[in-house]
Structure formats: structure tokens, C-alpha cells
Amino acid sequence: MKTYEYVKAKADKEIERLQQCIRDVKKTYKYDFKCPQCNEVKQFRVTIARMGAKGRVYCSDKCRSHAYKDRKKAETDNIIQVLKDRIEELESKQ
Prior knowledge:
Layout: H1 4-28, E1 30-34, E2 41-45, H2 61-93
Antiparallel strand pairs: 1-2
């Protein structure tokens, strides 16, 4: 005859074993990610990956901010070049 205490102890032991197994899986399951900004391949754990609507885009906030600065600089350079071309065009008409 099994008592309540025996079955409860056995169930608690099994639950603890399964929880340890889950913790081990969370620590070891990783995937490779190539950052478009720094072009490095980094490994991230599947369970802590920040996945937004587009998924992971950059490896860190630092790379994300550098990419933003590069895009803004390219836009500014493009506007400056258009204005320089317009000035040259107007000067050549005179």
C-alpha cells in the first residue's frame, strides 16, 4: 500500500528532475546570428532572445544605434549632394 507521503515525495522528486532538465535546455540551446552592422556571428540562447515584430535585427543596442547614425548620415549626405548639384546647375546657367 502506497501512502500519501511516499507518492508526494516521489512526485516532488520527479518534478524537480524535470525542472532541472528544463533549466539545462534553456542554458544550452543556442542559435547563430549574424549582425548586419558589425558582421559578427554571435550565439544567443533561444529562450532569452528578444524577438520583436521583425525578429532580432541587431546583436546589441550599440550596433542598432550605430546603424541609425549611419542611416541618418547617409540621408544628410544625400541632401547635401542634391543641393550642391542644384547650386552647380544654377551657376552654370548664369
